[in-house]
Amino acid sequence: MFIMDAHCDTLMDIVEGHRRLADRDKGGQLDLERMMEAGVSAQVFAIYVPPQYLPGGGARRALQYVDAFYREIEENSDKLVFATSGRDVEEAYEEGKIAALLSIEGGEALDGCIELLRIFYRLGVRLMTLTWSLRNELADGAFESRTGGGLTRFGVEVLEEMDRLGMVVDVSHLSEAGFWDVMEVSKRPVIASHSNSKTLCDHPRNLTDDQARAIAQKGGVIGVNFAGYFLGEERRSLAGVVDHIDHFASLIGPECIALGSDFDGLPDEQLPDELKDVSSLGKVAEELAARGYSESAIQGIMGENLLRAVRAVIG
Q1: Is the separation of the CB atoms in 170 and 103 below 8 Å?
Q2: Which domains does the chain have, with CATH numbers?
Q3: Residues 58-90, buried b or exposed e (16+ Cβ, 10 A)?
Q4: Angle formed by the axes of helices 153-165 and 114-122, to 10°?
């Protein structure tokens, strides 16, 4: 089965020197050995710039992540392939290797410069969440709902340039007003890489039913997050993850659902007991099968839907 996950924060551990991708015995929720055990075919690795580097240090910190990512690719080239297109992902799958895609989690990394967007694209970044949960130069984040703010003029410029370049716009962490601005401005499919249903868990980071419908209408996908924060504490379980998949599937169809684990971006206690690390991803497919999902629907949710949406943008 082709398995593709839309979001992990493993590069944060690597850039801070805690461990390397080939290390299994130094903690973390995702590493190369466990990815291979799970049969992961493609993984999106996020660049996240913490607030202490802002303002003014976003690009420098992001470039340190890029360097760490490149080093991991070079040192694990027998197992890992740097993918900048859908064809790269497919070729890696055919060769039995894992495709690694690079994303930016939060436009803070641009330091307010459109030129840096183009530079990051040339370095291989193919996806970007416009904000983390706070306000930046592009838009208000999900935790800034009091202002009612959406995209700034710079945010619109960035969005239009992402469309031109062929970069996937990721609306996770974005304010609702910003979300609807994206739906109006972007001409390509967009994704929510790691967000859940607000109907099942009323959290600012989750999506309303109308937002989910809008993503589907654009040909995008929603990567369901494994975090208890966004599942709802009573749903912090494998069954709870699939409850959110069920809700979205009944609303917009299983072809619009993907995985967005958020591994290594969460404390262990926020993960369901059955999904403590990447080696357990296959349990999602088992639970989907137990609930009567067809083989084709399961294959889509486990990876093919995400690849389709990403390939529609990056080629």
Answers
A1: yes
A2: 3-314 (3.20.20.140)
A3: bbebbbbbbebbeebbeebeebbbbbbbbebbb
A4: 30
pLDDT, mean of residues 217-240: 97
**The pair of three-digit structure tokens given for residue 288, joined into one six-digit string:** 């989907």
The neighbouring-strand residues paired with 103 are: 46, 127
Would the pLDDT of 146 be above 90? no
Q: Is the distance from CB of 284 to CB of 242 less than 8 angstroms?
A: yes
| pLDDT for the residue numbered 246 | 98
Which residues lie below 8 Å from residue 257, measured CB to CB, with a gap of 6+?
221, 222, 224, 245, 248, 249, 300, 301, 305
Element (H, E) at 13: helix 10-15
Cα-flanking dihedrals φ and ψ of residue 194, to 5°?
-155, 75
Mean pLDDT of all residues in 25-31: 95
The dihedral built from the CA positions of residue 206, 212, 218 and 224, taken in this order, carries a sign that is positive
Residue 78 one-letter amino acid? D
| Residue among 182, 234, 173 nearest 205 (CA) | 173
Asked if residues 62 and 98 have their Cβ atoms less than 8 Å apart, the reply is: no
| pLDDT score for 198 | 98
pLDDT in tens, 34-51: 999 999 999 999 999 999
* 272 cis-preceded (ω within 30 degrees of 0): no
Cα gap 169→193, rounded to integer Å:
10
Give me the mean pLDDT over the 64-83 stretch.
98
pLDDT given at position 262: 98
Number of DSSP helices (H) and strands (E) in the chain, helices first: 13, 9
Nearest to 185 by CA among 200, 216, 164: 164
pLDDT band at 234 (very low <50, low <70, confident <90, very high): very high
pLDDT digit string, tens, across residues 215-228: 999 999 999 999 99
